[in-house]
Each structure stands twice: as C-alpha cells, then as structure tokens.
C-alpha cells in the first residue's frame, strides 16, 4: 500500500512529510507498535519518537499521530518520519490504522486481479470491462485525441456530459474546457496521480487520471462514483489500472496524434466511424490542422508486407516533415491529410500549389528517397469529410500501376494520371471497351499491322491545333507528309480532325489506349480490321 493511500484512509486533518516522493513508497502496514523495518510503515507516539529519535533509512516509515495542533518545530520531520494531526483520540486513530492491515491485504489481492486482467485481455475494451469489475465503478478510457477507446460499467444515461461522450465516441470540447479551466488537468499532470473531482454538469464525483508510458502522455483513465464511494484504496487501484492501460495503448498503437501514434480522428473518418463534420473539424483544430482551406490526401507506401510498427515509424517521419498535417496507419500504408491553404485565385491553382507544397519540401522528399517509399496524391478537396473518396483515388492510382517498376519518381499525382486510373477501373470491371471510340481503335490496329503512324499523327494534330508546322516538326516529317496523313485519316477511319467532337474522342481514346498498354491487342480488346 502506498504511503499516499495510508494517509488518505486515515482520519487526519494534516500531514507533515520530508518530501513528496515518500508518498509513492509502496509499504507494508505493520500491526506492531513502533517496530520499524525496511519497506514497512508502523505507528508510534510522539514520546516514542523523542525517546528513540528518527528511525534509520533502512527502517521504513514511522507514523506519529498528534491530536490537535502540531508544534511548528516538527513541521519539517526527518526523512523516515511522518507527522499527522487530527481530532480523533489516539486510541481511535490507532484502531483506524490497524484496520489498514486488513485493507492492505485486500488491496494486494485486487491489484493482482487487475494485473491478471491486463495479462488476459487482448484489447482495451476487454481490459476496461474487467478493470471496472475490480474497481467497482464504471470507467472510460480515452487517448490524446480525446477518442473514447473503451467504456465499461453501468454509466448513468441521465448524465448529459458522460452520455454525450459515450454516444459520440469523443470527449466534447465543453468537458475538456471545464477540466482545463478548473485546473483539474494541470493538477493531475503535476501530481502524476489520480484526483477526485466533481463533474458540475452531471453532479457526479469522478476520478481523473492521466495515462503515461515512458514519460509520454497516452490518454486518460476516468472512473465515476456510481456503484460505491471512491476511497483512497480505490485511487491506488485506479492509478495501477491507469499504468496498465498505458502499456496496452502503447502495445496497440492507439495513443493518438499527440504522441506520434497517428490521428484517431482521421482513422475514424476514413473507416466511416466518425461522420459528425463539426466534431471532426474541432478535433482537427486541436491537432493544429488549418480549417476552411483546401487539402490533399497522401497515401505513403514502403516495404511490401511491412507491418504496423514499420508504418508507425513512417508516419512519424512524414508527420514531422509535413507541418500542419495529420496522419494515421490505414491498411498497409500511412495516410496523410495535408493542408494547402486557402484558395486565393479565381481559377483553380490547387494542382500547382500542391506540387509546390510537396515537391519543394526537402525533408519530406528526403524521407521518401532515403527509405525507398512512394506517395500517391489525391485530387485537392475542401470538405474534410471527402477523405474516404480521396483515399479511394490514392488506392486506385497505386493499383493502376502508372509508373515503370524502375522509375525513381517518388510522388505520383492523381491528375497527371487520370486516364490511366479510369482505364484501370474500367478494365478491372471488364468494361474498358466502353471507353474506346472504335474508329481510333481501328487506327491503332492498322498502325500495328502496317507499320504506319496515323494515330501518332492524329494525336499531334490535336496537341498542336492550327499549327501544321509544329505538328510536322514533332513528328519529324515534311509538312506535305503531315497533310497527306491527315487526309488519309479522314478517308480510312472516318475521323474529321477539324471537328471538335472527333478531336475529343480521338484524344480521350488515345490516352486510354496508352493506359491499357499494347497487350490489349493480344487480349482481344481491339477489333480486327479488314
């Protein structure tokens, strides 16, 4: 039993201790009067203390009770002595202290039960359920993104703040503001142990404890006084459960953005679990992501078959490089939401600003290059709730296999490979034939069989409209040859290169054919020509 718990369980009005660190000492409560030994707290009188002087460092703690007021000369006791004051008689105090002998045994059993809960639990929900049974009151576990990771016990439905938290899956801003403005969070952080407070809105006593692991804040473990009154022993149990929850959160990698474990909010939006737009915006604001601007989504992939730990490190690299972004592990990749800032032009400059934002970030580009990773970038968008659709774009861009395997290009933009993606999607569905203007297809077939260059000529006529000289130069042919081919295109394939619709059909089909690759001929996609 910690010395803090011993003092919390006794009927005292004041305590005087050498330093606060002693409160965290784990001690055995001794039933023997004034017999000290290492790791033991025993009871003695002021006469015992004056007669025997302070116990040695290895003798544990001597607890001295004084009824009434303690003389000021004893306000700074030796390290192994604790003076406490109270209104009860010495005999009543001694009786209360002796009851702690039995309670310390019960505490040890319950601590062991909590540890077994941790060992036997495969996720936080199971741990919370079993921990709540040991603690005897309902609990809520949240991470640094204020996401509710687990709840357990009979949480009253008529308490508005608690009910709203459980229902939404996140701690509301109003609750967080109350905890901050009242000084509760700062008190818990400075003391590093749980504190009993009263939730004003719900008129309910609760215990607030911050989860730490390796000195990093991982979230909160809150218990609510519903089933029975919270005691000093309960506080020690909650602190122990909090430390175990920190181990589980670290193991599961769900601590949240603030400890570089990825954004819980982004993960929930991507998976469709969190669809409250205002709440999402609020949590992104907390994560220092600019609002009311344009964004792109990046899907960063690295080593094939790499697991969660690998991508957790990737996420930390990416998140550190791209300021004003949030990331999460999602599937076998890291997904990053990047702010592009507000649109300042009447037209659409997001493609350019995105390329500038990403390609000029030396730290980010270096992380991709040095770790052999590639980033697939979605179309820009302004509504944060569009991230699921934009993630689909990134995945399709990857699956379209738009780059040669030997390519060293590290960033792939959707808008630069739109036709390849469209072709890949329709090909996967078995509908690629629907995209193709058959006159252009016949032209491609003819060129393949006869070694001609009609399709290339037609494409250059579109690329250099109204400029036969530039088109001929691009083809490395004489202007007369160019005009001859253009005339033959109309004659052989019934395509009028002066007609806007025909030019559009030609350009689109040519890009799709390029995306489908030459193997479409062998696969029977292109019809035979006579």
TrEMBL record:
One Pfam family of this chain: HTH_30
Domain of life according to the entry: Bacteria
UniProt cross-references to InterPro entries, sorted A to Z: CdaR-like_regulators, PucR_C-HTH_dom, PucR_C-HTH_sf
PucR C-terminal helix-turn-helix domain: residues covered: 455-509
PANTHER family: CARBOHYDRATE DIACID REGULATOR, PUCR FAMILY TRANSCRIPTIONAL REGULATOR
Official protein name in the record: Helix-turn-helix domain-containing protein
Organism: Tractidigestivibacter montrealensis
């Amino acid at each position: 039993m910690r010395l803090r718990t011993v003092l919390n369980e006794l009927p005292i009005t004041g305590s005087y201790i050498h330093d606060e660190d002693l409160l965290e000492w784990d001690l055995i409560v001794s039933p023997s009067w004034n017999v000290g030994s290492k790791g033991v707290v025993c009871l003695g009188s002021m006469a015992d203390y004056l007669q025997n002087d302070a116990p040695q460092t290895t003798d544990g703690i001597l607890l001295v009770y004084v009824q009434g007021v303690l003389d000021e000369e004893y306000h700074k006791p030796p390290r192994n002595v604790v003076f406490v004051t109270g209104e009860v008689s010495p005999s009543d105090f001694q009786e209360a202290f002796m009851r702690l002998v039995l309670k310390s045994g019960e505490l040890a059993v319950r601590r062991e039960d909590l540890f077994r809960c941790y060992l036997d639990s495969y996720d936080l929900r199971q741990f919370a359920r079993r921990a709540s049974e040991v603690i005897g009151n309902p609990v809520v576990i949240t991470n640094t993104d204020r996401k509710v990771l687990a709840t357990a016990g009979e949480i009253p439905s008529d308490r508005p703040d608690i009910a709203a938290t459980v229902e939404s899956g996140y701690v509301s801003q109003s609750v967080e503001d109350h905890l901050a403005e009242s000084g509760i969070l700062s008190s818990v952080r400075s003391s590093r142990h749980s504190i009993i407070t009263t939730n004003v809105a719900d008129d309910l006593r609760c215990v607030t404890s911050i989860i730490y692991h390796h000195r990093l804040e991982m979230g909160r473990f809150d218990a609510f006084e519903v089933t029975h009154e919270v005691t000093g022993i309960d506080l020690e149990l909650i602190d122990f459960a909090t430390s175990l929850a920190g181990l589980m959160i670290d193991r599961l990698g769900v601590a949240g953005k603030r400890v570089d474990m990825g954004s819980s909010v982004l993960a929930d939006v991507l998976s469709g679990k969190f669809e409250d737009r205002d709440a999402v915006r609020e949590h992104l604001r907390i994560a220092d992501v600019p609002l009311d601007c344009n964004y792109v989504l990046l899907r960063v992939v690295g080593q094939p078959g790499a697991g969660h730990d690998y991508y957790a490190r990737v996420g930390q690299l990416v998140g550190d490089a791209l300021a004003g972004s949030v990331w999460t592990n999602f599937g076998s990749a890291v997904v990053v939401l990047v702010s592009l800032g507000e649109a300042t032009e009447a037209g659409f400059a997001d493609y350019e600003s995105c390329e500038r934002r990403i390609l000029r970030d030396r730290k980010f580009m270096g992380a991709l290059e040095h770790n052999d990773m590639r980033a697939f970038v979605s179309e820009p968008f302004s509504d944060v709730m569009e991230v699921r659709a934009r993630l689909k774009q990134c995945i399709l861009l990857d699956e379209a296999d738009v780059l040669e395997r030997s390519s060293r290009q590290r960033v792939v933009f959707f808008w630069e490979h739109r036709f390849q993606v469209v072709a890949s999607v329709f090909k996967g569905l078995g509908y690629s034939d629907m995209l193709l203007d058959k006159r252009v297809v016949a032209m491609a077939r003819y060129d393949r069989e006869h070694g001609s260059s009609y399709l290339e000529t037609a494409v250059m006529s579109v690329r250099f409209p109204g400029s036969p000289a530039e088109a001929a130069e691009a083809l490395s042919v004489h202007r007369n040859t160019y005009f001859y081919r253009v005339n033959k295109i109309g004659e052989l394939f019934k395509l009028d290169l002066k007609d806007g619709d025909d030019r559009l059909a030609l350009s689109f089909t040519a890009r799709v054919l390029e995306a489908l690759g030459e193997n479409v001929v062998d696969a029977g996609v292109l019809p035979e020509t006579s």
